[in-house]
Structures are given as structure tokens and as C-alpha cells.
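Student: Send me a single protein entry containing the residue sequence and its fold in C-alpha cell form, directly below this note:

Tutor:
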Amino acid sequence: MIVVNSAIMQDKLKKLIESIDSPKFTFIKKEGIKLCFSCDLEDDEAAIAVAKKAIKSDPIASTLLISVKSEA
């Protein structure tokens, strides 16, 4: 499971992550500031890199203080 932590603009981040075509991310749940996604990529580190790249490429999302990590 890939977790994106952000206190603000969670809806924008959710849409941004779900819009990634390859690998495909699917929103699972929200827990406080955590947005939890499943990913069809086996390698969590590669999935994290893809998610971070997508966030950093967005002019608004790139200004947010976020963390992206893997959880069991």
C-alpha cells in the first residue's frame, strides 16, 4: 500500500495520483492525513518514485509539504 501524507489539498492529490496511467493507482481509504492507495506495480519503491514525480510535476501540488511511503 502506498500512503501519501498531506494535511491540505487531499482531494487534489487523490485525483492527481489516480490520474497516473502507468502504473495504475487505486484509492483505498483516507485515515486522518493519510491517503492510502493500492498500485499494480510490485515494486513499492518504484511506485513511490512515480507518485512523487507526478506530485512534483504539478505546479500547485509541488508546493505542498507531503510524504509518500509504503505501508503493509
The two ends are 6 Å apart (CA to CA). The chain has one domain: 2-70.
